[in-house]
Design brief:
Arc Repressor Mutant, subunit A; 10 helices; 6 strands; globular
Length: 209
């Protein structure tokens, strides 16, 4: 089964190169490729993954995230941009981005990011993760420590950082999907996060895994 992809990128040369790259693999299909959020919103056909730039005409990619999520609940979005500043990264993740990779990322890594997010994982490079965590200030005086997590939770968090989906984690550990979900919920609460991307960032920054 092909992974369907939509691309929102205003630079036509880079957009066309992405279409060519992704379409050259039978496991992926580019359904549409447009130059703005408005054009993408006018598209009636949903896709599995949207590759979204930040610097776009009229509406930015970050402004577009909640629009896509509202139109297509559960929509997976990967930011693919040259913006590596902390404000852009943080704003995108807080807005609901499922991954954040830079345009200078190798073609193979871009395809891996698509696969990871499609399977329910998080696509976040270590460099991006460190920049994200540098901006997050603890809301409580109590610092999150490695011992806050149980051995099983650390094990699951490690698998999350490897890009594994909930289903694959369940199969790997020989436990039910619901049990994995319960552990992930507990991990989120202990790390004060709301997404896998942020959990991965915490894990890498604090060297929990």
């Amino acid at each position: 089964m092909e992974i369907t992809i939509g691309i929102v990128e205003d630079h036509s040369e880079f957009r066309n190169s992405l279409v060519f790259l992704i379409s050259s693999f039978t496991a992926y299909q580019v359904v549409w490729a447009v130059g703005s959020v408005r054009e993408a919103m006018d598209n009636k056909e949903p896709v599995d993954i949207i590759l979204l730039d930040i610097n776009l005409p009229n509406l930015s990619g970050i402004q577009g995230i909640p629009l896509f999520k509202a139109k297509f609940p559960g929509q997976k979005i990967i930011m693919l941009t040259i913006q590596d500043d902390e404000e852009s990264i943080l704003s995108a993740i807080k807005a609901g981005a499922d991954g954040y990779i830079l345009k200078k990322t190798s073609p193979q890594k871009i395809l891996e990011a698509i696969q990871q997010v499609y399977e329910g994982g998080a696509a976040l490079t270590p460099m991006v993760a460190k920049q994200v965590l540098a901006l997050f200030k603890p809301k409580k005086a109590v610092k999150v420590t490695h011992t806050s997590l149980t051995p099983r939770e650390k094990e699951i968090l490690t698998l999350i950082t490897q890009g594994m989906s909930t289903l694959v984690i369940a199969e790997t550990l020989f436990i039910s999907i619901q049990t994995v979900r319960n552990h992930i919920k507990s991990i989120y609460e202990k790390l004060h996060v709301h997404s896998k991307a942020h959990a991965v960032a915490i894990a890498l920054k604090e060297k929990i895994v």
